[in-house]
Every structure is written in structure tokens, then in C-alpha cells.
Write a structure and sequence with these properties.
The protein is elongated, with a radius of gyration of 16 Å. By secondary structure, it is an all-alpha fold. The longest helix has 27 residues. The protein contains 4 helices and no strands. It has one domain. Helix 2 runs antiparallel to helix 3 and helix 2 packs across helix 4.
Length: 94
Amino acid sequence: MEERYFQESEIENKNEREREIELIKNIIKTRRELKNVDKNFEYAQDELVDYYIYQMKANQAKLNYLIKMAKMKGITVDMINDIKYRLSSDEEVG
């Protein structure tokens, strides 16, 4: 029997529009994480410098991949900004 990760099965059950929105959310989240790591790196000392460099490289590689996927799907910056605006509005309400 083939094992599957829970997240994989969740993604497979979504329609194309929902997948695009999930991709956009991941781009926004990864950008936010990259900015946070960059801020933390500015104040890092000793061994934490290496840790934050690793985190920046990992987040940048992930962001590059997600952007490549978005381009292949024809997702534009306007769509990303629209989702980002809706997410920030939802956070203010909730």
C-alpha cells in the first residue's frame, strides 16, 4: 500500500483555482519568512550567523521554486497582491 502525506492528499482534492490560491499563499508566507530571517540575521552572533545564512538560502531557494511554478501557471503579481490584501484583511477581522 502506498503511503501518502496528509498534505499531498489535501492538495490533490482541490480544484485548479484552489491550488493556485494555495501557491500564492505559500509565496506570500515564504516572502514573509525570508524578511524575518533577514531581520534576525542583522542581530545574529556567533553560531547563529551560520544558521540564519542557511535559513536565508533555503527560503530563497523555496521562493524561487514557487515563483517558477507560478509563472508556469500564468499567475501574475496582481493576483499575488490581491490574495495578500485579502489575507491581511481577514487577519484584521479575525
